[in-house]
Design the sequence.
């Protein structure tokens, strides 16, 4: 009996290995001497742009067939312009990938009539890193803690209504009574940080990596240029553990559920998806390639040189989070829609 079980296990393992190799050979025919395009809905200077270029440099080494990988930028509407293009127009051959905005799920739940895609039809390959959205303001704004925002208006910049730069301040206004005035239309975190530096706006809600990599010195010293007031995520971000979580400001369980919906951005992070309609035969090998590159020492070293983190999740892990979020009770979703956008 033991011999039979062992033999079966060995045969099963060999079958899996042979199957995996055949699979890899099959898709190598698709990618050999071809170009893979990564579409990103932001400019080149921010963390989306840098992460897409990082993947463009390294991902082709681990995809069977070793294709050339290039990056295409399509800024607009907080990444939703590129997402709508990927859903409705992007070729389904597997040679076109999307780096989705981190608010891809929350935007669909909150703005179903405006957002023209079904988030469950994208297939996640994995993420390079996730980060907490962190609201920071200039020190000369007169705001020293989040409590001060309850009685003083502060102007914050935003790239669009689908972006954390809009949704986090809007949520805070609705749930806490803060007086953040949101000005939209900025493109990319670098441009928004420049506007804050020049005094056009007094604050921003950006991912902590965007703050730390580009403007980390703003938060240092006895008289810092800026202060981090609150962070949105599933848990404290490393390096700013003492900055309060949005959930810690809320008492109502329904309010906390709304905050958790927007905190999903920290889980989705910077990664890649296949568009709807791409062959299911591509999923396993492309997920394996993505997982492999995010563990590669050269890739990780290059990421840190670019001011980026590497704390990956697999495509399966992210897909489960997406499924769970889109299964949220409709009353919670309607409440979130109402308090943030004033709509049902």
Sequence:
């Amino acid at each position: 009996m033991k011999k039979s079980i062992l033999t079966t296990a060995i045969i099963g393992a060999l079958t899996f290995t042979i199957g995996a190799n055949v699979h890899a050979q099959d898709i190598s025919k698709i990618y050999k001497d071809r170009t893979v395009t990564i579409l990103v809905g932001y400019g080149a200077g921010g963390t989306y742009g840098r992460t897409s270029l990082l993947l463009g440099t390294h991902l082709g080494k681990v995809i069977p067939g070793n294709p050339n990988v290039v990056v295409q930028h399509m800024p607009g509407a907080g990444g939703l312009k590129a997402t709508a293009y990927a859903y409705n127009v992007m070729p389904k051959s597997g040679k076109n990938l999307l780096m989705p905005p981190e608010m891809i799920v929350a935007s669909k739940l909150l703005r179903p009539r405006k957002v023209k895609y079904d988030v469950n039809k994208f297939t996640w390959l994995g993420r390079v890193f996730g980060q907490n959205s962190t609201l920071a303001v200039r020190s000369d704004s007169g705001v020293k803690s989040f409590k001060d925002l309850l009685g003083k208006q502060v102007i914050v910049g935003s790239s669009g209504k689908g972006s954390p730069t809009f949704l986090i301040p809007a949520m805070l206004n609705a749930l806490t009574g803060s007086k953040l005035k949101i000005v939209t239309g900025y493109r990319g975190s670098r441009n928004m940080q420049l506007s804050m530096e020049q005094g056009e706006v007094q604050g921003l809600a950006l991912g902590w990596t965007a703050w730390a990599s580009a403007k980390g010195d703003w938060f240092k010293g006895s008289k810092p240029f800026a202060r981090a007031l609150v962070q949105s995520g599933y848990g404290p971000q490393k390096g700013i553990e003492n900055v309060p979580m949005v959930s810690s400001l809320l008492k109502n369980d329904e309010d906390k559920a709304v905050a958790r919906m927007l905190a999903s951005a920290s889980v989705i992070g910077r990664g890649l998806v296949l568009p709807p309609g791409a062959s299911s035969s591509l999923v396993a090998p492309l997920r394996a390639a993505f997982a492999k590159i995010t563990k590669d020492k050269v890739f990780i070293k290059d990421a840190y040189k670019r001011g980026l983190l590497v704390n990956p999740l697999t495509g399966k892990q992210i897909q489960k989070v997406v499924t769970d979020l889109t299964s949220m009770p409709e009353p919670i979703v309607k409440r979130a829609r109402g308090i943030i956008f004033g709509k049902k």
About this structure: Residues 2-31 form the longest helix (30 residues). The two ends are 63 Å apart (CA to CA). The longest strand covers residues 123-129. The chain has a mean pLDDT of 91.
